[in-house]
Inverse folding.
């Protein structure tokens, strides 16, 4: 029954996506239980139709596109890539020479009907395909597939000039090449959710080729469309409403770009938009994660290098042009530098009339909902912005996603509370994915500002991670379990939902009271499922406060309940940094003093109480990436990490006494490194609430993290007027008494946040339900 429900929801999402941008113009048929659109019996039908040829002619005369066309012409005049000397896929996939020249000649034939251009394209490209026997190098499928795309353009656009013999010769080469792709042919290998088969191979290369040759060889399209519509599309239409992707800021760029090709390909073929139209808002995550220096907050597998602004021009023109979204299109305009392998599509699809719009009028906080449960909060969009990321992770998609449920980051005039480690470097000879550093530190919970529960006997099986380079076990970092079958990725949505990839549950979220410039941003989740049976319950709540104070612009409160299965399992609250932290009693200072950075945070630990608390700094030379006895070094040999953003230190807060249940409560204040004082942190007096006053704010949580549905009382001893935030309340109508008198006769708690927010001064308050 559960499987049927999943398929029903996926198909419902698919249907919504198909209808959103107009009715499909093509016939849909059932192929082995999957509904697929049938390519129309006309040519051209790949990337454009007959009705688009007038626009194509005008594009050849468009002054805005002339530099793009000129660049394509220059590429076409270069020598072909030498497949024997190319060492990496990046060298193999460079578009120049025959492939580009054939694409351009095919365009010239479409727009002039001059057979000379068409015949030249047909003969040259066919020979190129016959010569396309790439060495068995890592990621060579990307070069093979891109050559197939060039061949598909020629086949479709010059179709009426081809002899039957030539068509068969093309098909023979296409099938031969398809069998060398990582996805295999038939294309049934690897995951449709993550990994290489989740990107170009199926969604652009095989889809394009199979549409071109459908009349003579329908099998390739049937197999490709079955895989795409049966596996790739349902999972994307399921997670797109969260407005983000799951592979980290570096790989999201690649994977989401690949998603945008079938958007255009199938729409231009006549099938309409088959995606959930929430796809439009995936790029907004980049806006919120971008730092004032143009870099991005760390997420997933990535390297660090402070250079040019990290923009997404390919996504900018593909998604911006299709959805007519000026915020997204602005990413293209900021740096209209499109890679050669995508240059022809820039010429074909770029909306030359669109203007960009700066995203700085968007709300300062954004929630990226289920199945992720992430929140990004900012104090502004300028140079002095504080940025905080908070994660729950309802699901872990594996591959380039980390074991970072419950993690947070803080940036202010430099990275302060960081994700530690780095993807490619000296560990594993720059290979990244399979390096000891990546598998045992960087991807793991220990490298994030999250929670460890250390069971010395826990085993982390990893035999299905890393392909041919797998090892049977990863080191015990005390962190979250490795999802999937021995850390293998989910094959499709069904496996993702119905095996062990679920890692958490969103319990509450919200920001306000003003949606545009909120005072608070709140996220609460249960991340018990992220861990093995060594835990009985793990819950984390975040509150980010925009204090609107020049001296101390922001604060973050982190409240945790951790119940271990065995009292002897040691618990760790982690806080990572670049520079060495300074511990002063209950306070930890983390400061940025180098590379032009000038921010600072002070973390004040409220719980565990001082007499039951150990606070220790781990790091420095020989211990930068320390995992219970082993340092997994990783020097920046792949790309310079000028500011050492991979980090070198962490603070561990641990309870001294061994018990099953522990509470952690930490208050982090953000400021300039010249600021000498922090705001006073004063505990609330309450039996059922745990909270503090901080400047003109009061924040409290349910002590046991359960929903409060009974009268509860708290006292503020400090003087002055406060903005008071009480969390974990049962939704509905409440009444507030102050010092025994009715203070607010009626106030509503909504179901998403469970939060009350009101103004009041010192005194004793009672909340009545």
């Amino acid at each position: 029954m559960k499987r049927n429900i999943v398929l029903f929801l996926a198909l419902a999402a698919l249907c919504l996506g198909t209808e959103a941008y107009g009715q499909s113009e093509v016939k849909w048929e059932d192929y082995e239980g999957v509904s697929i659109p049938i390519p129309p019996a006309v040519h051209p039908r790949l990337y454009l139709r007959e009705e688009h040829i007038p626009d194509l002619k005008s594009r050849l005369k468009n002054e805005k596109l002339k530099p793009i066309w000129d660049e394509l012409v220059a590429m076409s005049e270069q020598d072909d890539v030498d497949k024997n000397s190319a060492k990496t896929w990046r060298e193999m996939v460079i578009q120049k020479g025959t492939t580009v020249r054939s694409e351009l000649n095919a365009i010239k034939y479409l727009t002039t009907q001059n057979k000379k251009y068409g015949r030249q394209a047909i003969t040259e490209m066919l020979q190129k395909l016959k010569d396309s026997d790439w060495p068995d190098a890592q990621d060579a499928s990307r070069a093979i597939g891109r050559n197939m795309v060039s061949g598909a353009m020629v086949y479709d656009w010059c179709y009426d000039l081809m002899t039957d013999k030539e068509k068969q010769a093309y098909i023979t080469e296409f099938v031969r090449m398809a069998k060398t792709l990582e996805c295999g042919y038939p294309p049934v290998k690897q995951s449709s959710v993550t990994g290489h088969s989740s990107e170009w191979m199926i969604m652009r290369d095989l889809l394009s080729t199979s549409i071109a040759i459908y009349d003579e060889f329908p099998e390739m399209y049937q197999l490709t469309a079955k895989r795409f519509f049966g596996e790739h599309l349902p999972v994307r239409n399921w997670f797109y409403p969260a407005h983000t992707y799951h592979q980290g800021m570096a790989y999201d760029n690649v994977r989401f770009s690949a998603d945008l090709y079938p958007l255009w390909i199938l729409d231009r073929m006549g099938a309409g938009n088959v995606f959930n139209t929430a796809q439009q808002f995936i790029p907004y995550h980049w806006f919120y994660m971008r730092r004032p220096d143009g870099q991005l907050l760390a997420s997933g597998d990535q390297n660090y290098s402070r250079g040019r602004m990290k923009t997404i021009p390919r996504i900018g023109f593909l998604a911006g042009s299709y959805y007519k979204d000026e915020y997204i299109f602005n990413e293209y305009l900021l740096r209209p530098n499109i890679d050669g392998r995508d240059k022809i599509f820039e010429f074909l699809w770029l909306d030359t009339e669109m203007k960009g719009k700066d995203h700085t009028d968007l709300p300062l906080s954004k929630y990226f909902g289920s199945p992720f449960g992430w929140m990004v909060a900012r104090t502004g969009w300028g140079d002095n912005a504080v940025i905080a990321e908070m994660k729950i992770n309802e699901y872990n998609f594996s591959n380039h996603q980390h074991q970072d449920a419950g993690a947070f980051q803080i940036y202010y005039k430099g990275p302060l509370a960081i994700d530690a480690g780095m993807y490619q470097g000296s560990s594993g000879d720059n290979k990244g994915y399979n390096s000891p550093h990546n598998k045992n530190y960087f991807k793991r919970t220990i490298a994030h500002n999250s929670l460890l529960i250390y069971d010395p006997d826990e085993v982390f099986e990893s035999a299905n991670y890393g392909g041919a380079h797998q090892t049977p076990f990863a080191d015990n970092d005390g962190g979250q379990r490795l999802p999937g079958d021995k850390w293998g990725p989910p094959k499709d949505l069904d496996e993702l939902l119905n095996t062990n990839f679920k890692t958490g549950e969103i319990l509450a979220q919200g920001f306000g009271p003003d949606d545009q410039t909120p005072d608070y941003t709140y996220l609460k989740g249960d991340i018990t499922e992220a861990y093995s049976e060594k835990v009985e319950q793990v819950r984390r709540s975040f509150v980010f406060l925009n204090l609107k104070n020049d001296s101390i612009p922001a604060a973050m409160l982190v409240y945790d309940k951790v119940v271990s299965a065995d009292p002897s399992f040691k618990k760790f609250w982690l806080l990572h940094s670049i520079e060495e932290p300074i511990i002063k009693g209950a306070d930890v200072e983390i400061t940025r003093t180098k590379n032009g950075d000038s921010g600072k945070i002070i973390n004040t630990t409220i719980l565990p109480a001082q007499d039951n608390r150990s606070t220790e700094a781990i790091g420095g030379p020989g211990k930068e990436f320390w995992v219970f006895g082993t340092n997994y070094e990783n020097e920046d040999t792949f790309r310079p990490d000028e500011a050492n953003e991979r980090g070198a230190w962490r603070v561990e807060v641990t309870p001294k006494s061994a018990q099953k249940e522990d509470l952690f409560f930490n208050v982090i204040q953000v400021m300039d490194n010249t600021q000498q004082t922090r705001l006073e942190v004063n505990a609330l007096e309450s039996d059922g609430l745990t909270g503090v006053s901080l400047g003109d704010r009061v924040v409290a949580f349910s002590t046991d993290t359960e929903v409060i549905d009974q009268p509860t009382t708290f006292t503020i001893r400090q003087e002055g007027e406060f903005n008071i935030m009480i969390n974990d309340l049962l939704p509905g109508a409440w009444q507030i008494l102050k010092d025994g008198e009715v203070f607010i006769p009626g106030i509503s708690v909504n179901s998403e946040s469970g939060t009350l927010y009101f103004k009041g001064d010192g005194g004793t308050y009672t909340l009545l339900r």
